[in-house]
Amino acid sequence: MDFLTAKQAAEKWGITPNRVTILCNGGKIPGAVHMGKQWMIPNSTEKPVDGRTRKAKNNAGEECFRFPLYINFNDNSFSPPLSEEEKALRTAQIDFFGCDFEKAKKEFDVLCKNSENRYVRMSSLFFMCITSAAYNAEINFLYYFNQLNSELAKDFPNKNEMGLLRPWMNGIFGMYKSASEYLNYDVETEFHSSVYYFRAYLSFFKFIPEDVSDYSEAHFEVFELLCRKMEEDKYFFEAQMLHYMLFVSYMMTGSERLMLHHLKQIIAIAYEHGLLYAAADLAPYYPDAYKVVLSEYPKDFAERLKRSGAHIYNNFAVFNKKYNTSNLYTNLGRNDYLIILYVSQKYSNKKIAEAINHSERTVANMLSNIYATFGVKNKQELLKLINEEL
Question: Rg for the chain (alpha carbons), in Å?
Answer without folding.
Answer: 22
